[in-house]
Amino acid sequence: RATATMGEAPEPSPQAPLAVLSKVELRVSCRHLLDRDTLNKSDPCVLLLMQSQGQWMEVDRSEVIKSNLNPVFAKIFTVDYYFEEVQKLRFEVYDSHGHTGVGTHDDDFLGGMECTVGQIVAQKRVTKPLFLKYGKFAGKSTITVISEEISGNNGYVELAFRAKKLDDKDLFSKSDPFLEIYRIDDDRSEQLVYRTEVVKNNLSPIWEPFKVSLNSLCSCEEKRKLRCVVWDYDSRGKHDFIGEFFTTFEEMQKAMGENKVQWDCMNPKYKIKKRNYKNSGVVVLLDLKIHRVYSFLDYIMGGCQIHFTVAIDFTASNGDPRNSCSLHYINPYQPNEYLKALVAVGEICQDYDSDKKFSALGFGARIPPKYEVSHDFAINFNPDNDECEGIQGVVESYQSCLPKIQLYGPTNVAPIISKVARVAADEERTKEASQYFILLILTDGVVTDMADTREAIVRASYLPMSIIIVGVGNADFTDMQILDGDDGVLRSPRGEPVLRDIVQFVPFREFKNVS
User: Fold this and answer.
1) Do residues 26 and 120 make contact, with C-beta atoms less than 8 angstroms apart?
2) Which helix (H) or strand (E) holds 483?
3) pLDDT tens, position by position, 442-473
4) What CA–CA distance (Å, rounded) separates 380 from 362?
5) Closest by CA position to 459, among listed 480, 504, 490, 485
6) Which stretches make up the C2 domain (predicted)?
7) Could you tell me whether strands 435-443 and 465-471 are parallel, antiparallel, or unpaired per DSSP bridges?
8) Which of 18, 295, 309, 372 registers the highest number of CB atoms within 10 A of its CB?
9) pLDDT tens by residue, 139-188
């Protein structure tokens, strides 16, 4: 799609779904909103709409902020970003009345703004005026949308805070505290990361635990400064400042396990005025849990190597290699289907394997010297080292092994899966995550040891390995579709499900003519 020739871009094929390049987080704030309420200020709420087939559909809405004409919304809107599509967005701000819901009356409409996801992503920060119906300006009202790409979604963190002995700001009752966390960006601007709920009438509140992405909390930089502020809630929107403290995600991580981290909640004005001022209370991080989500790229960039093993089906159903109808026929002018499939997958995998040595095994043939059937023999006939140098080495071993063996049967796949699984299990025990194993099985169809194969795959799903099965020729590939598990979870004969879906089946006939 990207490398269209000059001139006309090709039409995208209707059935091909666009690749989601990334997810984008949007944060919204407004300034100088119109005041629709006679007694107190508007209670704004933002709706996000997206255009789909010419219709505006509501995607999500923010929380309602009481009595505030310059709201900073804590809600983070997440949208899928498609690079090659114009994605129209519309933000609508309403004055909420709690009971009637949002966006029902024209008089509650505080203004709207339209833009595209692309514009926000390109500019990172977009500030535009809000418009009422018929293109009228909504006074001096503006809306600001800040975007952040969620890169390689590397997890989220769960935090649980409480406070002790906060200053009392209320005359007749105790303070109603809530906590805000801001991330301080490189340009010194502050981004609201999270706002807790309000705990009423309590100077030692325990706030509900909450989750935020590491991207949102600290842009995935542990040393980035965070500002945490405790306020006393006021229903008229004039929240009283209790105190603040600065920290980093690095410091927060000391709260893992049994430990707790605490900070003095400071009011700078009191510090100057009062001689023996200690603090305005203490904020305690009771617990921190990191849930990391690693992508394939994280492992590769962390130095994980991919070890590639190819297993070739040498059963008699492939046809006599000397016969031109055989799938194993060695044609001097062009590679057979086995070789084509091997090269197609191998060339991709070899980029991630630094030593470029591939294990090459065969199954279902009688092999010298005694011509007994083997289901996991090295095609270079070196049982101590089944590795070949590069894809070319595998091709050469394959060509030289064919005349020496007798195609036979049955098609037993489990022994080879178990063989690779044993090596993967040894790797698993090191806890290093330095090697991942890919087994490419090239076969012409029906598996004989289906029950054993299912059992072997379920066992292997707990290990650092994946299996790609390429079906060569025009046989019935029903068995392979079952092993792939796309139309339901693959289970062992005893009914135990796979831990991960580790099998991908590809019928080569559907792909061999694709570039």
Assistant:
1) yes
2) helix 478-484
3) 999 888 999 999 999 999 999 999 999 999 98
4) 10
5) 490
6) 2-130, 137-264
7) parallel
8) 309
9) 999 999 998 877 655 678 999 999 999 999 988 889 999 999 999 999 99
- What is the identity of the amino acid at 47? L
386 burial level (CB within 10 Å; 0-12, 13-18, 19+) = buried
CB atoms within 10 A of CB 308: 26
168 close to 174: Cβ distance less than 8 angstroms: yes
pLDDT band at 487; cut points 50, 70, 90: low
CB 216 within 8 A of CB 192: no
Distance CA 160, CA 254 (A): 13
Query: Residue 96: enclosing H or E segment and its boundaries?
Result: none
Pairwise CA distance, residues 431 & 104, whole Å: 57
Task: Return the exposure string of 123-152: e unless at least 16 CB atoms fall within 10 Å of the residue's CB, then b.
Answer: eeebeeebebeeeeebeebbbebbbbebeb
Residue 281: both structure tokens together: 């209370």
- Distance (Å, whole) CA 259 – CA 255: 5
Please answer whether residues 397 and 360 qualify as being in contact, where contact means their C-beta atoms are separated by less than 8 angstroms. yes
Helix or strand holding residue 306 (H, E): strand 305-313
Task: Report the pLDDT value the prediction gives residue 24, as an integer from 0 to 100.
Answer: 87
If 0-12 CB within 10 Å is exposed, 13-18 middle and 19+ buried, where does residue 454 land?
Answer: buried
| Strand, helix or coil for residue 422 | helix
Beta carbons of 427 and 466 less than 8 angstroms apart = no
Rounded to a whole number of angstroms, the distance between the first and last alpha carbons of the chain is 13
DSSP state for residue 317 in the 8-state scheme: G
Domains of the chain listed by start with CATH number: 22-150 (2.60.40.150), 156-291 (2.60.40.150), 304-510 (3.40.50.410)
Look at phi and psi of residue 96 and say left if phi exceeds 0, alpha if psi is from -120 to 50, else beta: beta
Strands (E), 336-453: 357-363, 365-367, 372-374, 377-378, 387-389, 406-407, 435-443
Query: Residue 368's CB: how many other CB atoms inside 10 A?
Result: 12
> How large is the greatest C-alpha to C-alpha distance in the chain, in angstroms?
99
409 HSE (CA, 13 A, CB side): 11
Peptide bond into 17 cis (omega under 30): no
**Residue 467: other Cβ atoms inside 10 A:** 27
In this structure, which amino acid lies at residue 291?
H
Structure tokens at 300: 């590769």
